[in-house]
Amino acid sequence: MNIVSISGSPSLRSRSALLLQLAQTRLEAHAHSSHLIAVRELPAQALLLADTQSTPVQRAVAQLADADLVIISTPIYKAAYSGLLKIFLDLLPMDALRGKTVLPLATGGTLAHLLALDYTLRPVVSALGARHVLDGVFATDAQLVAHTSGGYVPDDSLLERLDRALQPLLAHPVHASRPAALERAA
Q: Predicted confidence band at 12 (pLDDT cuts at 50, 70, 90)?
């Protein structure tokens, strides 16, 4: 299974990046390849000007094209996924997620932001052609507690929900029904 993870957080120290890392770690034994697209590391000018000819943007799009599974992680701000992630998703071709399985992950201050996964992110990944959008995992700030080391510590209930969300992928790893190059050419 070829995995591409997209971190949509603008922050260097991020709960959503940790949630993404937890998912990646649990899946890496089943991965043929794994790539991380940290959107905050893409050139700001290329993102803001929708420069699809930018080499880093083209590299990210090519990685997505070869993915079987795409994991998207974002903080929820004002009941929606991050603006940084929005800018990146807007750069993608309309069929960028065609035939792919997508696992959405999100973090937010309270459970009041939980529905943002279904009402803001799910429609966009579906419009980009995702074959199957898995039930997402949402974590509140209280479930990813700041640690004195500068990182975050997940609580047990979050880890259990993440494991449940990943179980179908571990039991039956996702593979494209045909090679990605053929899928793009079709």
A: confident
Q: What is the largest CA-CA distance in the chain?
A: 51
Q: Confirm if 34 and 28 have CB atoms less than 8 A apart.
A: yes
pTM here is: 0.90
Q: Between 15-27 and 156-171, two packed helices, what is the crossing angle to 10 degrees?
A: 40
| pLDDT tens for each residue of 93-149 | 999 999 999 999 999 988 778 888 899 999 999 999 998 999 999 999 999 988 888
Task: Please report the beta strands in the chain, taking only residues with DSSP state E, as ranges in sequence order.
Answer: 2-7, 33-38, 69-77, 80-81, 101-108, 132-133, 137-140, 144-146, 152-154
Question: What is the pLDDT at residue 147?
Answer: 87
Sequence-distant (6+) residues with CB within 8 A of 113 are 76, 79, 106, 138
Tokens of 133: 């959008």
Token pair of 26, please? 């649990």
End-to-end CA distance of the chain: 21
For the stretch 35-88, pLDDT in tens is 999 999 999 999 999 999 999 999 999 999 999 999 999 999 989 999 999 999
CATH for 2-178 is: 3.40.50.360
